[in-house]
Each structure stands twice: as C-alpha cells, then as structure tokens.
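Tokens for chain A. Residues wanted.
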C-alpha cells in the first residue's frame, strides 16, 4: 500500500468555522497575534493566554469536521495515510483519521510548566484553565501549544514522514509559516505532489499539481485522482 502523506493548514478547518490569525491583518479573534500566540506574550500576560485559549476551546467543541476532513479518512481505504497538521484543533481525529501528527500543539490539551512530558487532555466539561490551575503534581500548567519563538518538537518526525512519502499532498496553507512550509522540499525527487488551496502560493518544484479550490471541493477532486494511482 502506497504511503500518502498529507500536510494540512488553516484552510481545511476554515470551512468548519475555525478562524485563524491570518484572517485580518495580524489579529486573531481581535487580539494581536504576538500577544496571544508567542512565548514572550505568555511570559508577559499568562492570564490573557489562558483566557484566549479557553475561548478557542469553547469555539472548537461546537465546530464539526467538514467534508475535507472526512475525505482524508476515506483515503485510508486505498493508502497508508499520515496526516501532518499545523492546526491545533482536533477535527481530523473527530472525523476518524487514524494517524495525525500535530506540529503546533493541541488545543484540547494542557502541559505542565515544570515537566514538559506531563500533558493532559481536556474534555467538554473541563475546558478552562487559568494561572491558578494545577496538575496532579501540584504544578502550574499552560496551553499545549507551540508558541511563536519556541522550537517545533514534531518537525523532525514530520520531515521523516515526508521523506518516506510515495505521494505528498498540501491542503489549505499559504506556505509561509516556517518550518512547516519547508516540508514540501523534503519530498523525494519524482514523487507526485498535490496542492489544494483557493489562493495557492507559487511553488517552483516539479511534479506539483495545483487544485485551485477550497478544501472540501479540492479533496473531492483529489480522491478521484488518487484512486487511479493506487
């Protein structure tokens, strides 16, 4: 079974109503991005960070996976599918994708400030954290998010997956957020690449097929094309 590696960005969740910090001139839900999504911002105002991600979780639990998320699950019938996502939502998992690697963390989790290996999953009845929240060891916590100015721990595993891909797909990303944007350069020469986005960036690589459509429409077209490539 061929290995299909799919890198997803904000565009695949946009059709589920999940807004991103690229929607309006550096503002994310009316907050300056660096205040709510940077390491410096967290150090300066942790109360605001907790409040902001509490709001994002409340938004997320009412969102639902869309046809693009479900389409990637359908592809598991024909390929060994690995999803690498820049998104912090859990819509891929809720749609049923069996292998998902999160580059930028996970919104529905929190992490100990004392021990980065202590990570906890939140649920619909326990969405909120604060500077007063403590884990089972009595330690303070933070959102399990990779902020700007921080390293991306899962980037090396993501590179390895892309290097192993027989087919690589990029969905809903502007290809300007690094290091995630550089994954496309890890594809082995000659392996087919598909890029789905209504406003695609320029890609100066061979073997790239651009599908200039929103994620839901583009994934539908992708499925029909890939079925011929099993």
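Reply:
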């Amino acid at each position: 079974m061929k290995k299909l590696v799919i890198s997803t960005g904000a565009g695949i969740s946009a059709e589920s109503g999940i807004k991103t910090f690229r929607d309006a001139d550096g503002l994310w839900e009316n907050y300056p991005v660096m205040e709510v999504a940077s390491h410096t911002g967290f150090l300066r105002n942790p109360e605001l960070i907790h409040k902001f991600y509490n709001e994002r979780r409340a938004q997320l639990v009412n969102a639902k996976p869309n046809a693009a998320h479900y389409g990637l699950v359908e592809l598991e019938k024909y390929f060994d599918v690995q999803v690498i996502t820049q998104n912090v939502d859990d819509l891929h998992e809720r749609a049923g994708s069996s292998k998902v690697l999160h580059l930028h963390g996970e919104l529905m989790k929190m992490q100990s400030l004392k021990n980065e290996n202590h990570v906890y999953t939140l649920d619909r009845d326990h969405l909120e954290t604060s500077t007063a929240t403590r884990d089972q060891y009595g330690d303070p916590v933070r959102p399990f998010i990779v902020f700007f100015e921080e390293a991306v721990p899962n980037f090396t595993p993501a590179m390895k997956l892309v290097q192993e891909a027989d087919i690589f797909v990029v969905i809903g990303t502007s290809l300007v957020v690094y290091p995630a944007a550089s994954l496309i350069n890890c594809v082995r020469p000659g392996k087919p690449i598909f890029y789905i986005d209504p406003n695609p960036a320029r890609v100066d690589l061979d073997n790239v097929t651009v599908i200039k459509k929103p994620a839901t429409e583009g994934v539908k077209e992708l499925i029909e094309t890939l079925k011929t490539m099993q």
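The longest strand covers residues 105-112. The two ends are 8 Å apart (CA to CA).
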